[in-house]
Each structure stands twice: as C-alpha cells, then as structure tokens.
Amino acid sequence: MKTKLIDWPTFIGALILLLGVTIPLILYPVKGAEIVNLANDFMTGNFGVFYLLVGLAAFAFLIFVSFSKNGHVKLGNKDAEKEFGTFSWAAMLFAAGIGSSILYWGMIEWAYYYQGPPFAITPGSKDAISWASAYGIFHWGPIAWAIYTLPALPIAYFYYVRKKPVLKISEAVRPVLGRFVDGPIGVIIDVLFMFGLMGGAGTTLALGTPMIAEGVHDLTGIPITLGLKAGIMLVCTLIFAISAYSGLRKGIKILSDINLWLAIFVLVFIFVFGPTLFISETTLTSIGLIMDNFFKMATWLEPFGNLAGFTETGFPESWTIFYWAWWVVYAPFVGLFVARISRGRTIREMVLGTMIYGTLGCVLFFGIMGNFGLYLQLTGQLDVIGFMNQYGAPAAIIEILHQLPMADVMVALFTILAVLFLATTFDSSSYILAAVVQKEVQSEPIRWNRLFWAFTLCLLPLVLMFVGDLETLQTASIVAGFPVIFIMFLLAWSFMKASNTDIHESKNYEAPTIHINRRERLGRLREDKDVTKEDSTK
Ligand code: NM2
C-alpha cells in the first residue's frame, strides 16, 4: 500500500472535521438540529446579497475570460490531442456535476412554485403558473453552471499548462497566497472544501434515496422502511465504489456514457408520448421569460420584508440562495473534475462547453419532465399538488410517471437512472476527494484511497439516516459551504494573476499554447510589412 504519496494532515484533518460534526449530531440530534438550523437561518438571512453577487460575478467573469486572451490558452502541449471526445466529455461533466437531484427537482420543483410563487404573486394564479415552469430552469441555468465552472480555470491551468501534478484546491490559489499554501492555511482550504463536498453529497443522498425507495416499492411492493433505504444506499455505494476503483477511463467513463444514453431515452420517451406540443411551447416560453427577467431573478431579495404593506415570502432564502449555496459546495469538486478531463481543450472551449452543455442538459430535464407534470395538473389528469401534499414529493414523482404508457417499465428505467445519476456523481466525488489528500497525482489517485473516500462519503448520511435526521445534514452542508465562497474569489484571482503573467512573459514561456487572435495577427502582419518596407528603402 503506497502511503508516501498521501498528504496526511489533509487526510486526517478532513476525517476529524467530519467526525467532529457527525458524532455530536448522533449524540444530540435535537440540539444539533436546532443549532444547525439557527446557523442556516443566520447565513441565508444575512448573506443572501453575497451569494447572489457571487453568482452574477462568476457569470460575468467567465464570459469575460472566454473572450479574452486568457481564453485562448490551450490545456496541455500545443499538439496535445483531446483526451476525451466531446460526447464523452460532456457526458462525464454532466454526470459528475449533476446527480439524482435533477430527476427529483426536475419533476417536482414547479409544484412548489405553483403553491409558493416568487414576487409575492398569488399562489395558483396564472402568473404563478408561468413562473413555476421557469424558475426551476433558472436555478439550474447559466449562473449555476458558471459557479460550477469557475474553479476549473485555475485548476486546469496549473495542472496542464504549468504542469504541476497536483489536483488540490490549495494549489490553485498559490499565485495569491504564495508560500502560505504549504502550511496550515493550505490544509484548511482543502479540508473545508472536502467537508463542504461531503455535506453537499449528503444532501444529494438525502433526496435521492427516498425517491429510489419509492420506485422500488412501486415495482416490488416492498414496504418503504429504514432497512430498504439503507439497503439502497449500500447498493449505490457498491456501484460507485466499483466505478471509482476501476478509474476514470473504465468505470467512470463507461457509467457516464450509459447514464447519458438512458437519460436521453427517458426524456425522449416522455417528450414523444407525453404532451409534446405543450412541453415545447411551455419550455420555450419559460426560456423567454427568464431571458426577459434574468437580472431581476438573479438579484431578487426581499429588502422590505413585511414593511409598508409588503409581504415577505422567504422565497429567495429557501430557493435561490439555498441553490447557489448548494452549487457552491459542489463547485470546487466539479472544477477539479472538469479540469482533469479537459486536456487538449482551450480554456474557452472548456468554459463555454461546460456552461452551454450544462445549461442545455438542465433545460431539457426541467422542460420535459417538469412541464409534463404541470400539464397533468392543468388538465386535471392528475392532481399532482394534492397528491404531493398528501403523500410527499417522491410518491408524487412516481405517480406522474404512472401517467405514461408502459408505466411500469418507465418507473423501472427512471429508478435505474436515479441510481446511475447518483453513482456517477459519487464515483467522481470519491475520485476527487482521493486526489485532494495526495501530494501528487500523476495519472490517477491511488486505488485504496479512492475506495476509502467512496465508503466515507456514504457513511455520514447512512448513520444520520438512522438517527432520523437527513434534513439536518442537508442544512448543515449548506452552512459548511459558506467558507467555500471565499475560496471561489481566491480561485478567480489566482487564475487571472497566473495566466496574465504567463501571457506577458510568453516569449520565453514554453512556446505557448497561446493562439493569437485575428486582430493581433493582422497587426503583426502589418508590422512585418513595415519592417520589409524599411529594409527595402535602405
Ligand atoms: N446541484 C446541481 O444531487 C445532485 O444533483 C448534485 C446538485 C448542486 C444542485 C448536484
């Protein structure tokens, strides 16, 4: 067993923090939940502005970078071939960054907005219905994907351009923090990121497991008990542990490809056999509504609360801020992962590819699955909202699927798809957690290390489920992600600092990887001509 490569302070630090939070939650669940909820209210109540600004800033920054000189830098040597074809690349990045939550929220998010709309609109009104269809797409749209993409910039840059074989968040902020990253500050940055990710992943499991259990129950009649849910978690863990163990090119890539094909099949099926026209029209209209109101949605808070006749809805805290926080805790991981799979692409290709494919994928899920449910509601074919309020969201999701032809097959495929989505997020998470606790990653992190983090990822939610408090975990993860926001700033700053320096010094810097844009090329041609003219006049 190779242990020399392990960065023990980070490895142990992350475990201590994890146990330090889990054990008190197990011992004092009620008090623990109280504290976590207080922390959450404090954070989303007071730092909403901050979160919304981070979203907007990430979005603006990435657009700027992709069209600036820095966007032309190629990740890898000039002649490096793309390590993965675009299809597999997009499949992997989507499968890594998006878990089973997209099946959950894609199906049912609209139902929450229908009953609790934004902008103090009357619940169930015509306006509420339009926003119900649009808001989910916004929460999984370009700003969210920008949050995901930002950390990939410095990480990919150092790994492929400066060729440092280290896949760590701390390494990516070296240009700003300098030697400090070699000391405790570096360890703290990595540990905080790992903790946030484990919490964010806990939220994913907390949502995914009951939905998969509902599918299994529907298909087999097995009652939904704690045992069934624990069994499901263990099976999922086994699948993603095997995938992480077999590595990037075998396990993770193959599982992601299958995941994508199955997802396409399910979506096409619902689109074709569901209300095709309604789905197309509503999705397009929703996109228009978002475009029209992009900045309004991206900045909407409730500054007046209940003052002067205003009514506070709590919508921004419960949804937009919560979502941005959730994307933030996952972001460094997705950044590390996207960076790792992007060899041979330019920064611009990586950035625009992630944002565009990511957003498009989410639009398809929300547009097709969500609007199918909305259609059932509006036509009275199924009172989804009534069903959900009585039996819970997972049951409502399965009931929606029952309205399709070949319902049992669709429920089965949907359940398998949920397992796959979960597994493909968790195998890459384990892979990245393993990478971060290593001093060096030449090609892949060590196998036992990958396996270790696969099981650790599942342990916390599993134990907390028995204490009956997955919700606390969900909240705790968001709180845990708060420090990651500052890391996001450092990451953006580091990228600009490093790549600008390299571009300025590019004459002696490894025959860069930097393509010249058209205007510059013309400029240079002109200079050359001037030189020749001068020469001929001599
Ligand atoms: N995000 C995309 O459960 C999942 O789908 C993982 C969730 C951050 C909302 C990511």
Describe the structure.
- It is a single chain.
- This protein has 538 residues and is mostly helical.
- The protein has a domain of 367 residues.
- 77% of the residues lie in helices and 0% in strands.
- It has 24 helices and no strands.
- Helix 7 packs across helix 16 and helix 8 crosses helix 23.
- The chain is globular, with a radius of gyration of 24 Å.
- The structure holds 3-carboxy-N,N,N-trimethylpropan-1-aminium.
- The site of 3-carboxy-N,N,N-trimethylpropan-1-aminium has 10 residues, from helix 5 and helix 16.
- Belongs to the BCCT transporter (TC 2.A.15) family.
- It is a multi-pass membrane protein.
- InterPro entries: BCCT_CS (IPR018093), BCCT_transptr (IPR000060).
- It is found in: Cell membrane.
- This is BCCT family transporter.
Task: Give a brief rundown of this model.
The chain has 538 residues and is mainly α. The chain contains 24 helices and no strands.
